[in-house]
């Protein structure tokens, strides 16, 4: 195989990963928003090779950012908290790492959408309290869930 063919194959794998991440996020939206009356906006932007899936509601924003280089990030804003930006995944050619990330994203995207539209056990405002403390979006959700579900048992 020539260097050009190898490069083309690596680029195709990266695009496949980007498409899988994009699809995972998009599939989460109808699953978690059915039956919701709260007004919020979902905006999808394609710019250069990047894709942005943005959620907006009064006083709060959340955006999944899928960059053309394969890196994945999230950006969250809430009126009473400082903005939070975090790289969720740095592109790696290892398929196992990609699959593990997509599996985690599949679960967490749905959870974060539920929190954003206030259909989970706590509000986006409360979640942002945890993000301010934990500094990691997925870990903050897991910690909040652990603490609030622990209170339900008592």
Q: Element order, helices and strands?
A: HEEEEEHHH
Straight-line N-to-C gap? 63 Å
- Order of neighbouring strands in the sheet with most strands: 1-2-3-4-5
Count of helix runs: 4
How many distinct beta strands? Answer: 5
Instruction: Summarize the amount of helix as a percent range.
Output: 40-55%
Structural class by secondary-structure content: alpha+beta
* Global shape: elongated
Strand content: 15-25%
Structural features, described:
With 154 residues, this protein is α+β, with helices and mostly antiparallel strands. Helix content is 53%, strand content 25%. The protein has four helices and five strands, in the order αβββββααα. The protein has a five-stranded antiparallel sheet with strand order 1-2-3-4-5, with helices on one face. A hairpin with a 2-residue loop joins β4 (72-78) and β5. α1 (3-33) runs parallel beside α2 and α3 (124-134) crosses α4. The protein starts with a helix and ends with a helix. The model has no long low-confidence stretch (mean pLDDT 91).
Task: Write out key terms for the chains shown.
154 residues; 5 strands; five-stranded antiparallel sheet; 53% helix; 4 helices; alpha+beta; single chain
In short:
The chain is of the alpha+beta class. The chain contains four helices and five strands.
């Amino acid at each position: 195989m020539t260097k050009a063919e190898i490069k083309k194959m690596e680029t195709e794998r990266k695009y496949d990963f980007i498409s899988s991440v994009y699809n995972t996020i998009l599939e989460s939206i109808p699953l978690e928003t059915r039956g919701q009356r709260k007004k919020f906006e979902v905006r999808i932007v394609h710019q250069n090779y990047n894709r942005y899936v943005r959620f907006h509601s009064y006083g709060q924003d959340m955006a999944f950012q899928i960059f053309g280089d394969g890196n994945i990030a999230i950006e969250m804003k809430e009126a009473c908290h400082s903005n939070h930006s975090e790289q969720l995944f740095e592109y790696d050619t290892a398929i196992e790492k990609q699959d593990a990330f997509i599996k985690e994203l599949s679960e967490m995207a749905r959870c974060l959408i539920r929190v954003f539209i206030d259909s989970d056990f706590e509000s986006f405002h409360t979640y942002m309290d945890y993000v301010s403390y934990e500094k990691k979006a997925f870990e903050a959700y897991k910690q909040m869930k652990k603490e609030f579900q622990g209170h339900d048992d008592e």
